[in-house]
Write a structure and sequence with these properties.
Distance between the termini: 12 Å
Structural class: mainly alpha
Number of domains: 1
CATH class: Mainly Alpha
Number of helices: 4
CATH architecture: Orthogonal Bundle
Helix content: 40-55%
Oligomer: single chain
Number of strands: 0
Radius of gyration: 12 Å
Order of helices and strands: HHHH
């Protein structure tokens, strides 16, 4: 199982939290509670994951459990990539 934690954290901090943001994120922090991911943010994150990892994410997979934290996003990516292989 690959660890994409740093890759996902870098994208979220630079592209979603905003340039110069002083938000620090641990892999278990709630992206929603920290105000980083809202409904539009989830769509941006999904577009990034599909492009970066070659994934196809179904509407039924767009649930809080898959996008709540960096850890949950990494878990989701690994499951999806495992299913592809």
């Amino acid at each position: 199982m690959a660890d994409y934690t740093d890759t996902i954290r870098a994208f979220i901090q630079t592209e979603m939290a905003g340039p110069g943001s002083k938000v620090t994120l641990s892999p278990s922090d709630s992206l929603i509670e920290k105000g980083i991911v809202d409904s539009l943010g989830v769509q941006r994150l999904i577009a990034y994951l599909e492009k970066e990892f070659g994934l196809q994410i179904a509407d039924t997979e767009i649930v809080p459990e898959n996008f709540e934290t960096i850890n949950s996003v990494v878990r989701f990516i690994n499951v999806k990539l495992g299913a592809k292989g």
